[in-house]
Design brief:
This protein has 206 residues and is an all-beta fold. It contains no helices and 16 strands. Strand 14 and strand 15 form a beta hairpin.
């Protein structure tokens, strides 16, 4: 029953705050946004996903102007737990490590921007993305890590199977136990945008 806005870019600096607003579930109307008082490391183009009442803030750009002036990527993953009450206010953030040998530094020892993440069957997944700040080199790798009952992320591993193309700015989604990677770009130019949808329904249990 709440909508959240996390971090981003103000037009002059990276943001770190979390805003939330109540949604009227009978009409879809949204109330005014309020500040939660909870902050993350300043960043924009992060990925924020929810699993079992925990929200994960993954990657993004920490320094530089949006949308194409990134000069320093942000490898830190932070998480917070949503209160199950009438206020919608989240608990304080806790760092749950970095992407380690996963999406942020698994390929070429660099961080990522423009990747996409989702959660499926107790695992967090991160696919594609740019491996440099100019976003001229894309990745076809998919990484995954288990999530425990307290919301902690385990060790990242690279999936043996890769995306059929190196992509960034696409969207990783789940439906019915299947992973989908939708659209994206194969290069930094907008003319490199693709309409392809890739999917895999063979998810290992280990």
């Amino acid at each position: 029953g709440y909508i959240y806005s996390l971090a981003g870019y103000s037009g002059s600096a990276s943001l770190q705050d979390l805003l939330f607003a109540k949604i009227d579930v009978s009409t879809g109307d949204m109330g005014n946004f309020s500040s939660s008082g909870v902050v993350v490391t300043p960043r924009w183009d992060l990925r924020a996903i929810v699993s079992n009442g925990y929200v994960y803030a993954v990657g993004g750009c920490g320094t530089g102007s949006a949308p194409s002036g990134c000069t320093a990527l942000q490898p830190e993953i932070q998480t917070f737990q949503l209160y199950n009450n009438d206020s919608g206010t989240p608990m304080a953030y806790a760092a749950t490590g970095t992407c380690g040998a996963g999406p942020c530094s698994g390929a070429g020892g660099v961080d990522r921007i423009g990747g996409s993440s989702t959660v499926l069957n107790g695992y967090i997944y991160y696919a594609g993305g740019c491996t440099n700040t100019g976003c001229t080199t894309m990745s076809n790798l998919t990484y995954y890590a288990p999530i425990d009952t307290n919301g902690n992320i385990g060790t990242w591993a690279a999936a043996a199977s890769t995306l059929p193309a190196s992509l960034a700015w696409g969207k990783l989604l789940t439906a019915g136990g299947t992973l989908y990677y939708v659209g994206g770009q194969t290069g930094s130019a907008a003319t490199s945008a693709v309409s392809t949808v890739y999917y895999t329904s063979i998810i290992s249990s280990v």
